[in-house]
Every structure is written in C-alpha cells, then in structure tokens.
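Hi V.,

Quick status before I head out on leave. The structure for the redesign project is tokenized and pasted below; the design run finished overnight.
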C-alpha cells in the first residue's frame, strides 16, 4: 500500500492548488484524477483579482503563474450589465484591478505542472471506488481506467476536490442539498465580426433571453446564452440559432458570429454541503458548493478554498492542534454561502420576467453602482478582494482581512514569495527574536502577523503575535517566549 500525508482527489484548479501548496511545504502528496488527460472543455473563463494576487507568488519553472496567465488572457476592467450599469473592477485597491479572461485549460495546466514540479505524485486515469477512515488516516481504493488492478492508497488526510458529482462525497454519504435553478444554458467559444465596443465583460437580456460575452482577445469570445422558450436536456445538441440570434436579441444588436469553435449545454444548481470537514476528509471547490455561473466565481472560490486549507493541513501535519482544520469550514463555508447568494441574485436579476420588476432592477442597480461606495462593495465582493474572515472577540479590526497591499520597507506583502507566516513589524521597531520570517512596515499602522494565505492573523503593538502563532502552528518555542 502506498502511503502519503495527503491524497487529493481531483486535478482541477482546486485540487492542484492544494496539492502544489502541500508538496511545496515538503509533504508527501498524491493526486488522483479520473480523467486520463486534461479535460478538453473549459467552462470557467475568468480569474478574479484576489485569485490573481494569490497566484502571483505560486510559480512554475520560476515564473509566477499570474505572470504567465496575463500573457495568455485578456484583462477586463469592468462588467457591463443592463441599462448602463457596470461593476468597475478598475477602481479596486489591488495590483490587478481587473478580471482576466483566460480559458480554464491554461489554469489547469499551470497548477498541475506546479504540483508536479513541487513533488506531488499525479495519478491520472484512476477513479476512486472505495474509502474507509479511522483514527489515524484514510484508505482509498482506486481503479485504473485501463482495467488494471485496484490500487490502495493511505493518507493521514484526504482533500475531495472531485467536482459537483464528487465520488468521495457520495462514498461518505454526505448530502448535497439545494436545487437546479436554471436549465439549458449554452456555453460556446465564438468568433465575432462586430463585437461590443469598449473593454470588459458584457451582459444583456430581454424578458425571454440573456446573452453574455467575455473577450479572449482578437475576435475570439466566450459566450453564454439562454432562452426561456428553448429548454432542453444537457445532452441535447446545441444549434447555431441558440448562440448568434440569442446574443443579438439579448444585447440589442447583431455581434456577427462568424464561427463557433466549441459549444456545450448545461444546467446550473445552487447547492452546498452542511459541513466541509468529515473526519479526516475535507471537501473543497465544486465538491462542497456549486452555484450560478454569473460573476465567474466557481473556479476562483475553489482555488481560494485550497489556499485556505493547504497551509492548515501542513500545520496540523507539523504538530498543530487538529482543531485548526475546523477553521477551514468556519472560514470558507460562509464565503461559499455568500457566493451562492450573490451569483444567484445576478442570475435572477437577468432572468426577471415581469416588466415592472425589470424596471426597478434597472433603476436600483444603476444608482447603486454609480456610487463609489456601492461599486466598491459589489466589485470587491465579486473580485474577492473585499471578502474577509470573521475575527474573534477583542481582535483588531484588521484580523481576517487581506494583507496583500500592506506596504513594506521594500515592496508589499503581496510581493513576497514565502510559504510560512510573516511578522510585519510596525515602522521603526527592531527585529523580533524567535519570530518567523519578518519585515518592517512602511508608513503608519500596527504590527501584523500574516498567515501563509495572505490574511491577517493578528494585529497590535505588543507581542500578542506569539500566542496567535502558537495557536495556529503549535510552535512551542515562540509560545513560551
């Protein structure tokens, strides 16, 4: 039997991020993926600012993943909605004030390559057929697609990142409550002769249809269309008249579809498991939550699930209290619920049928997004930069917020390429003996203890960081200081 610290099921963006993070920290990691080769389809198409921040210090062959993706995709500074309303990502305080339209296949490739480069064992063409866990670990049985013998893997923990139809979730007997909310949505990669003017994502609709366009570059676009009058099962072929004509009516003009390179039909659900942790098995990405594709949140939420979970698994494997893993659910489940809500609200807004309701929607959204405060709240939520984790009683107001933009004597926190905690000392304070990696803050503000995922764990003007670090990592030398 092969033994590992962690087995990750699923080699998509969520699973590969978790595997790469753990392998880079020196953990023995295996990835089990049922597809023999990377999936040729590419449903996700947008990388949001917070995800770009996270991928900026994850490298493949010494080059940041974000840097590579920027060379492959198209930055979009705004999302154009109905009636002139727009979500302005270019007003956010981030190094990447834009979404990035890039096929998911590129993200898949880079993150899997990173996991392999870090030392993870990737088993493609293997499907999980059995799972048993005990007090010390989890045993997985996998069956190869080529008909070979069943293989057994044992790990101290398992990360289930195997998608909305998660086999691991089913083997655990975990319910996936929710419902289907929109059917017969058509995705396609198209070429346009007369694309919408201006930069950004474009969304439009009538009472009967909606259309969405995301620019890949040149004349290539990802389209999403839906028609109330054409509701077919997922496996029904997609006709040309479900793409070009629907886009024209939804957007108010013909965008000139000259070619369709790829097409697919799907339905969207709103579902979320009640608990992300089940003993030594932790659910992440679409295995834990699925929602409307509006807003491009799915892949981004999964990658951020993995970024939250990876360092916590490493800490527990290194001696931290097992209860640290419970904070993965505590922090990420509310975020998943919020994503379900906001993407669902956008989907319901674009598919509204009564004329009075659509008129109210137009007025309210236009006024709200025209204000800086309204745009900042909505754009920050979709971008991920405005999301924060809950802090405890008595914690500084900065605890749980991203520290990416905190200025240091050299650069910012987001520029660092490090896998551990970082103590950011208040300006003018001397180095702290026994601290983890540390740097001096530039400008006013308290000292900060920054977690490996870039969020503030502690803020203050004393040595409270010691107890916080010990609580997260079990580092006794620092705790005894």
């Amino acid at each position: 039997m092969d033994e590992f610290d962690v087995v990750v099921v699923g080699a998509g963006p969520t699973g590969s991020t978790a595997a790469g993070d753990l392998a880079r920290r020196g953990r023995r990691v295996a990835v089990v993926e049922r597809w023999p080769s990377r999936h040729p389809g590419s449903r996700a198409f947008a990388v949001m600012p917070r995800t770009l921040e996270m991928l900026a210090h994850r490298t493949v062959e010494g080059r940041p993943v974000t840097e590579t993706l920027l060379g492959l995709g198209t930055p979009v500074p705004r999302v154009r909605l109905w009636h002139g309303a727009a979500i302005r990502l270019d007003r956010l305080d981030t190094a990447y004030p834009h979404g990035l339209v890039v096929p998911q296949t590129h993200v898949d490739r880079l993150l899997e390559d990173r996991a392999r480069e870090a030392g993870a064992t990737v088993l493609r063409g293997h499907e999980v057929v059995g799972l048993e866990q005990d007090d010390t670990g989890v045993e997985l049985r996998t069956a190869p697609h080529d008909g070979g013998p069943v293989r057994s893997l044992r790990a101290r923990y398992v990360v289930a990142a195997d998608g909305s139809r998660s086999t691991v979730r089913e083997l655990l007997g975990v319910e996936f409550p929710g419902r289907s909310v929109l059917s017969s949505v058509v995705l396609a990669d198209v070429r346009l002769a007369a694309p919408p003017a201006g930069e950004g994502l474009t969304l439009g609709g009538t009472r009967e249809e909606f259309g969405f366009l995301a620019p890949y570059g040149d004349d290539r676009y990802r389209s999403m269309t839906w028609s109330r009058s054409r509701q077919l099962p997922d496996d029904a072929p997609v006709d040309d008249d479900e793409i070009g004509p629907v886009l024209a009516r939804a957007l108010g003009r013909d965008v000139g579809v000259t070619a369709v390179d790829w097409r697919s039909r799907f339905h969207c659900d709103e579902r979320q498991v009640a608990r992300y942790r089940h003993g030594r098995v932790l659910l992440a990405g679409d295995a834990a939550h699925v929602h409307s594709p509006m807003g491009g949140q799915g892949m981004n939420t999964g990658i951020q699930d993995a970024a939250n979970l990876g360092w916590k698994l490493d800490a527990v494997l290194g001696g931290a209290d097992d209860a640290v893993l419970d904070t993965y659910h505590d922090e990420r489940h509310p975020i998943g619920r919020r994503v379900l809500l906001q993407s669902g609200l956008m989907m319901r807004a674009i598919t509204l049928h009564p004329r009075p309701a659509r008129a109210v929607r137009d007025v309210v959204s236009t006024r709200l997004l025209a204000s800086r405060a309204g745009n900042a709240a909505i754009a920050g939520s979709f971008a991920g930069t405005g999301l924060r984790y809950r802090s405890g009683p008595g914690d500084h107001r900065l605890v749980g917020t991203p520290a990416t933009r905190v200025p240091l004597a050299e650069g910012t926190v987001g520029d660092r390429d490090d896998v551990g905690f970082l103590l950011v000392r208040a300006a003018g304070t001397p180095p702290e003996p026994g601290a983890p990696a540390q740097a001096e803050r530039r400008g006013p503000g308290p000292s900060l203890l920054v977690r490996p995922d870039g969020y503030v764990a502690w803020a203050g003007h004393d040595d409270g960081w010691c107890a916080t670090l010990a609580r997260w990592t079990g580092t006794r030398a620092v705790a005894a200081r």
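Above is the designed sequence. DSSP finds twelve helices and 25 strands in the chain.

G. will cover questions while I'm gone.

Best,
W.
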